[in-house]
Amino acid sequence: MTTSRDEAHFSKNYDGVDAGLEQEDEASDFDPDVERYYANRNILIYNQEGTIVAGLHQRGFFTITNVYKWLAILFHLPQSGTWSIQSREGGEIIDIPSRSRTIFPLGSFHLIDQDAQILSPLPKSTSYRYRCLVNDSRKSTPADDELFNQVGLRDEKCLITGMGWLIYPKEWGVAPLTVCAKIFPFVTPSEWWNSEVQEIFRGMADSPETFAQVMMSPSNSFVCAYMASEGFHHHWFSIDVDDDYRIVHFTNCEQWRVPWDGKLLIDTCEETDSRPSDALLRAHFHQALIHWGLHDPGKHREFIIASKLAFNIQNREEPSDRQCWIREPGKTVLEAYVAQQLLGYCVELGKTSRDIFLDVFGEPDDTEPSEDSFDPTAEAENVEMEAEIEPGQVDDVDSDFAISFWPIDEKLIKNNIDPELIPALDFWLAGS
Q: Total domain count for the chain?
């Protein structure tokens, strides 16, 4: 079955379901920018069955060399030089020109081998790692501040826009103009056992512990203007390391002052392990290609649902009771946000639940009380408390579980609990 150009826009056809038949409240959960992107794609790649496998929105910046290279990154294809891109309309072969900056033409295409047979390539990876805004913008910790200072001294400016590195004292309450952008998103150290992750971090980490350390190191960080960092985290643009660190816009990022013909400003960075990692930048670029290049509207919809939820929470908007907010991946986003806001904790940094408890309550007091500290009135108080237990009540506490006295650190609780987040916490508990 051949997929028409109109059918390529998923607001008209999404997994065989007419979008017009969907409930109105469900349709409103999808980001119109992504729908516009799918509608505006003017480079479409088809397979042998006539199904779209990839697409791009050409705005006059993607070259023929770019498209050939990006397709080779996305798909399992024959050896370079043994396959070509051919127009579906006229049959013209789009050859790689001698001038590397020749713009790729608009239209519909398929890939052919050296025998002129149409190919149906399989993606190398379809795993898109959702970057949660709320984790990248979580409350800073001393480790965050130390890393930002270290990276700021190295970069001295935003490596995307050139804006000078600025840090305001926290007591001023001024929103930062520059932030410490993370190239690879924070994930749990257990993600180290993912073979794709191990391949990305080859030579940089060899265990879950060193993996967590690299994620919080200058190799995974650079100074970035706040608004540009939002675009970077969402893969609206990315850095093509193998094209002289050129900034590639997949959507219009002009409003974030990201230069169209810009490059990552690393001229002052020495070729050492302290500079932003080429391997991690390549991984970020591959994720951007998966998100914007592969034809997978179903996954794009799910990620946008979670993204919208993150924006609502950050803007202090009370979450709605729609099902999309309590299903994955939105549910995980909300849980991560509530955890880090209430406890100053972010699961991606590798802390355990016990570490959270210790951070807030301090070490347990397991020392045996001395005879001098014994209070004879305490036993009488305990007897009175036992007398208040209603008949029929069951004590569910495991007899093997030792209850300790925890000295509560009121300063930590005051600094980590935001009263405005209680409605979100109530919603989180109700939906979990």
A: 3
